[in-house]
Amino acid sequence: MKALVIHAPGDLRVEDVPTPETEPNQLLVRVRCGGICGSDLHYYQHGGFGTVRIQQPMILGHEVAGVIEAVGSGLSNFTAGQRVAITPSRPCGRCQYCQQGLQNHCLDMRYYGSAMRMPHVQGAFRQEIVVEAEQAHLLADSVSDAEGALAEPLSVALHAVRRAGPLVGKNVLVTGSGPIGALLVIAARHAGATHIVVTDVADAPLRSALKVGADETINVAADPQALARFEADKGFFDVLFEASGNERALTGAFAVLRPRSVIVQVGLGGGNMNLPINTIVAKEFDLRGAFRFHEEFATAVALLNKGLVDVKPLISATLPYRDAGRAFALAADRSQAMKVVLSFDE
């Protein structure tokens, strides 16, 4: 089969790779669609992120959906021809964190398309993939393959919303309107947030945030003082979801957060941040991290299947995997695209 293999920055090749045998309790899935994630872009543009670097050829991709081609022995709840979204998260299930229900902190995690381990964990941008049965979640006929591929980033947003605590009736600020920021709007609204404002430094992603339900958007590059009207009486917002990974976006929001607000840091920046601890103490902020997800993947698929959330406005384009160079260039252009999907059908 064919797969998209990254060798070095800018060196992404379509290569032949073998299809593993399907073992008991496993499924052979023909991948139909895969969403290009920010981490895929980092590998393609820079060879990695932070201290993580490609050290050997690696198949990219972890946001995928497809159709079951073969069912391993021991499985009775799947049949060939069923469509599934695949979670890329494969915790060991044995370490102390898995045993505590914190699978996203697994000590032996294997996450598709990750160079954090040696050897690297091969990704899912390939025509066929063998997965464990628990990784596969059935998609309703009403959900497209491209929408199914977005179950993974939607899971990230759902996990962040869970970390924030109850949102019913809350005023929410989202800083950074990339795909995760926009999905945070969807997840926060579903959780009961009544007023959602989104900031970014570009107009195009802010338009996408409006399409998925933001009440208001602000381009802080065009109007750096636009948030000032929310500073009265020690702030307006109850919850901040920081999705840009930018220190200025995080600390710049402190003045508009009410005392005892919850701050959920979702975006990963290029390094450490300098925080005004005195403000955090004086306003009694709760600063929380949100990293990946686990059980939220099943929730994401259920929400998509029942039509309770709509991710279609975020899908900017679907391109064939053989045209990956153009697809990655488009995905990197925030003025043109929100989420670019690769098609692996030929």
From the alpha-carbon coordinates, what is the Rg to the nearest angstrom? 20 Å
Q: Give the number of DSSP strands.
A: 20
The low-pLDDT segments are none
In the residues, how many domains can be counted? Answer: 2
CATH class of the largest domain: Alpha Beta
Report on the architecture of this protein.
This protein is an alpha/beta fold and 346 residues long. It has two domains: 2-150 and 311-343, Quinone Oxidoreductase, Chain A, domain 1; 155-289, Rossmann fold (3-Layer(aba) Sandwich), CATH 3.40.50. 24% of the residues lie in helices and 29% in strands. The strands form five sheets. Strands 3, 7, 8, 11, 12, 19 and 20 form a seven-stranded mixed beta sheet that branches. Strand 17, helix 8 (277-282) and strand 18 (286-289) form a beta-alpha-beta unit. Helix 4 packs across helix 5 (179-190), helix 4 crosses helix 9 and helix 5 (179-190) packs parallel to helix 6 (203-211). The model has no long low-confidence stretch (mean pLDDT 96).
